[in-house]
Amino acid sequence: MNDINFRKPLRSILFVPGNHPRKIEKVFDIGADEIILDLEDAVAIKEKDTTRECVKNVLKERSKIIKIPSGYIRVNSLDTNYFFSDIQAIVGPWLTGVVVPKIETSYDIHTIEWLLSQLERERGLINGSIDLIPIIETAKGLAQIEEIAEASSKTRARRITFGAGDLTADMNMRWTNDERELYHIRGRVVLASNAARLDPPIDTVHLQLNDLDSFHQSATRSRDLGFFGKLCIHPKQVKYANEAFTPSSDEIERAKLIISAFNEAENSGSASIQVDGQFVDYPVFEAAQRTLRGGSCGARRQSTSAGAARSR
User: Fold this and answer.
1) Distance between the two ends of the chain, CA-based, in angstroms?
2) What are the phi and psi torsion angles at 36 (to 5°)?
C-alpha cells in the first residue's frame, strides 16, 4: 500500500516524441523533473517498431552515464497490437517507469502490474522498481476512476493523471483555453487520488504552446485544486510548471512561522491559535507542512503574475 508522503517531486514531466532523435538528445538538460519518451500519439504506425528500440537504447546509454534509471516511456494502450511488444522491449534497469494511456478499469491496472512483475523477475530487477503512471482518457475510465485509483494504490503506481485531449473528445466537450470544462474532471481525479491514499495527481497538458500566460494560469489553477505537477508538451513550458508547483520564498517563510507557532502552542496544550490574524489548527498546520515538503526542490521567487510570465 502506498502512503501519502511525497517522493521525488514531479512538478514538470515533459513528453518527447520517441522518433525524433535530435529532440531526445536535448531534453534531459532542459530542467524537467522527468522525461517521457513517447511511443503512442507522436509516432506513426509504420515507425512503432523502430521507435521502440530507439527509446530503449537512449535510456540504456544515459543510465550508463548517470548510474540510475533515466526516464519514462509512454507505451501504446492495452487494446492495441503494440502494447505487449512495447512492454517486453523496454523493461530493464534503465527505465524509471511506464506511462500507460487509456486506462479504463481496475483490471487494466492489475494486468499491467502482473506483466511488469513477471518481466522484473525474469530480468533480475527488484519487484516494483519500475514506476507506473496510468492515464485516464475516456468517459469509461473517468466513470470508474475511484476503482482505478484504489487498484493503483495496491500496486506500484504512486499517482495518476488524465489526458484532456482524448477525454474531452470522447465526451463531446469543447476544450477551451480557460479550461472551465475541466473543473469537474480535475475534481474527480483529485478526490479519487486522495481517497485511495495516492500521491497528488499530475495535471494534463496545455495545448496553447505560444501562450505561456494561459499555461501558467492552468498550472496554478491545478495546483490550487490539489494537483502536484503538470504534463508538458514543449520545453518552454517546463520552467512555468516548475514555478507553479514550487512554493515561493514568502510561502515557505510563512509555513515555517505557522509550524513554529503551532508547535509551541501545542506543547502548551492548545491546538487552535492565531498567527498574524489567521486562524491555525491542525488542518492549517498540516497544510504548512505540505508547503515545506513542496519546497524541498528549492524555493522560487515571489509568485509570478500572469503578465510577467508572458513577458519573459
Assistant:
1) 43
2) -115, 115
Q: How far is CA 252 from the centre of its chain?
A: 22
Q: Do 27 and 235 touch, CB atoms closer than 8 A?
A: yes
- Say which amino acid occupies 170: D
Highest mean pLDDT among 19-28, 108-117, 274-283: 108-117
DSSP 297: G
* Strand ranges, E, within 22-95: 34-38, 72-74
Provide the residue type at 293 as one letter: R
Q: Indicate the pTM of the whole model.
A: 0.86
What is the DSSP secondary structure assignment for residue 180, as one 8-state letter?
Answer: G
- With contact defined as beta carbons under 8 Å apart, do 83 and 51 qualify? no
Phi/psi at 282 (5° precision): -60, -45
Per-residue pLDDT tens digits for 145-179: 999 999 999 999 999 999 999 999 999 999 998 89
Tell me whether strands 72-74 and 34-38 are parallel, antiparallel or unpaired: parallel
Cell of residue 111, nine digits: 494486468
Q: Please list, residue by residue across 241-263, b when 16 or more beta carbons sit within 10 angstroms of its beta carbon and e when fewer do.
A: bbbbbbbbeebbebbeebbebbe
Give dist(CA 120, CA 100) in Å, integer: 17
